[in-house]
Amino acid sequence: MSDYSESAAFIAERINGKPETAIILGSGLGALAEKIENKVVIPYKTIPHFVNSTATGHKGNLIAGTLGGKPVIAMQGRFHYYEGYTMRQVTYPVRVMKLLGVKNLLVSNAAGGVNHAFHVGDLMIITDHINLAPNPLIGANDETFGTRFPDMTRAYDREFIRKAEEIAENHGIILQKGVYIGLTGPSYETPAEYAFCGRIGADAVGMSTVAEVIVARHAGLRVFGMSVISNEGHHFADDFVNCGDDVVKAADSAADTMALIFTELISNI
Fold first, then answer.
1. How far apart are CA 223 and CA 24, in angstroms?
2. Contact of 119 with 204, CB cutoff 8 Å
3. What pLDDT score was predicted for residue 235?
4. Would you put residue 57 in left (φ > 0), alpha (ψ -120 to 50) or beta?
5. Contact 223, 217 (CB under 8 A)
6. Is the pLDDT of residue 173 over 90?
7. What is the three-class DSSP state of 6?
């Protein structure tokens, strides 16, 4: 608990107010953080016990300020298991946010489309997930944060989903909904693996988010998740190649729309 408390105290001394909503921004989606007003930027490398974000499209800053008229704190880039970090390190910021008083967590990511109806640039509300990576709660349970066996029946808050759908409808935005499956990466999936993910119930696949959501729910946070479909894992032309730069470009193209939805959702929480 001491490491988490030290990190939280360091951040609390540098930000204004007590944000109740946190945002974790994935590949190419860090631009949403630029819409935060009255911002205080804290590089991860300066925060005690934080690690560095090395993934493409992840700037590595913690940003506090105002979005949608509410105080927020945002991770401009996350940590991944494939970077060589432990699951404790990957999810460490979520527990720090809990100690800062955060009650709501909004997560975003770039994901491969498994559902044949999905296309590059689509936004998908995450309604559920499948975890095929190590569970971040393995090991001694910290009762300070939550129970040994947390319920995951409604990991993604249904009221937040309903509000996001209303916001999208009001702006004429078409949203997809579906199940996100989390793998370890860093290699992209083979065609057979994409097909396997679809057969077991996934609509989109990625290398993040699930561990953060598990730890958030363990700590009692309400969660909303959204994916940008950055490539189509159901359509393979002869010259098809998965490319990290293309993933970031696809996410960038949808960043403004996601920012609008997140901003109005936060203002209505």
1. 11
2. no
3. 65
4. left
5. yes
6. yes
7. helix
Task: Return the structure tokens found at 17.
Answer: 């107010």
Q: Which residues have C-beta within 8 Å of that of residue 122, sequence separation ≥ 6?
A: 113, 174, 176, 228, 229, 254
Q: Is the peptide bond before 186 cis (omega within 30 degrees of 0)?
A: yes
> If you average pLDDT over each of 49-53, 75-79, 219-223, which comes out highest?
219-223
What is each CA distance from 29 to 32, 158, 190, 230, 244, in whole angstroms? 6, 23, 25, 12, 13
Whether 239 shows a pLDDT value over 70: the answer reads: no
On the question of pLDDT at 237 being above 60, the answer is: no
Torsion angle, alpha carbons of 9, 15, 20, 26, to 10: -100
Strand partners, 180: 129, 204
The pLDDT assigned to 27 comes to 66
- Which among 92, 123, 112, 89 has a CA at the least distance from the CA of 225? 123
Task: Count CB-CB contacts under 10 A for residue 117.
Answer: 10
Q: How far apart are CA 167 and CA 161, in angstroms?
A: 10
Q: Which of 128, 182, 181 is nearest to 152 (CA)?
A: 128
Q: Phi/psi class of residue 68: alpha, beta or left (left: φ > 0; alpha: ψ in -120 to 50)?
A: left
Among 140, 136, 70, 60, residue whose Cα is nearest residue 103: 70
Do residues 62 and 12 touch, judged by C-beta distance below 8 A? no
